[in-house]
Amino acid sequence: MTAGGIQARFRLDYSGFSLDVDLQLPGRGVTALFGHSGSGKTTCLRCVAGLERAPLGRLIVNGEQWQDADAGIFVPTHERAIGYVFQEASLFPHLSVRRNLEFGMKRVAAATRRVAWDQAVELLGIGHLLDRMPERLSGGERQRVGMARALLTSPRLLLMDEPLAALDLKRKQEILPYLERLHDELDIPVLYVSHSPDEVARLADHVVLLDQGRVVAQGGLVETLARLDLPTAFTEDAGVVIESVIAEHDERYHLTRLDFAGGSVLVARRPESVGHRLRFRVHARDVSLAETRNENSSITNLLQAIVQEVVVADTPAHVLVRLDAGGTPLIARITRRSCDQLGIVANRRMWAQIKTVALLG
Question: Fewest C-beta atoms under 10 Å: which of 9, 21, 140, 355?
């Protein structure tokens, strides 16, 4: 194992449930542990934290060995350089925001601190909250303070267990930009537990799909979401995530052009400047296919693509078609009848017509 990665191997048995995972994760960026309730996401995270002791376990974090059952090594939770953010912020109610943050900072000797006070406060946008008591904070503000407190422990690994699950939609939308800033500006690997496809699509670089305590798939976000052999492909949320760059603003029609490998799309005018990176999502249900480029249509986002695979969807009336648009994967959900009429088979060149682009961020 290289010094720049995370190796986690856990086997843990409960009555009616067992966790058996073998993970090879990147040592930077956001890795999402994704799956439905009861799939083992939180149990896996607790094993990484040392809150659960897997009898058969091995854990190396960027060169540091925290557990090796064969060698009798088990570093206790309080000695692991982790920050842990739970669904509830769990702030000390009798301490102000400032003193809650100081509690986190005091866990680390001044000489070994890698996250400065001003940096954590600015990243989470909580400077105006420092003198408030937790009872005077909204749910989103409490979570931001909890995240800042976790960062001020200068962790080598940040663990987040569904940090947005207890928030309503408005508060989630409020806090997501701060999570994106943590991703963009901090060089701390994050393990992020979620069952929300939208959160994973917006935040993750790497995905681990869990089901009944087992790893169904793990890999880069873009490649993993485009696979048709996974349960995620057969849900209403099936689709792909595309990384793009703002290439041009059309002031006449109030549109913005996003460029990416394989083509470009037009979206409603964005406030960011040319050159800014944006991630967007294309659902399979919003992609139709045609033999020729159709200019006489209200659908203006057209990409030439090669069919890679066709599989039966979750209903006998539909199929899923995986395409390669110049290096960018796409998935289309169309009727089996249309598939037959158009003669859609592997290696066929088609035009993908994208009806809707969901911008992430």
Answer: 355
Report the alpha-carbon distance of residue 14 to residue 274 in Å, rounded: 53
Q: Is pLDDT above 80 for 234?
A: no
User: pTM for the full model?
Assistant: 0.88
The pair of three-digit structure tokens given for residue 109, joined into one six-digit string = 């000797």
Average confidence score pLDDT of the chain: 92
pLDDT in tens, 43-75: 999 999 999 999 999 999 999 999 999 999 999
User: In 3D, which of 324, 329, 331 has the Cα closest to residue 233?
Assistant: 331
| Mean pLDDT score, 197-221 | 93
Nearest to 2 by CA among 63, 49, 52, 53: 63
Distance in angstroms (rounded) separating the CA atoms of residues 352 and 305: 7
Rounded CA separation 166/199 (Å): 14
For residue 190, pLDDT beyond 70: yes
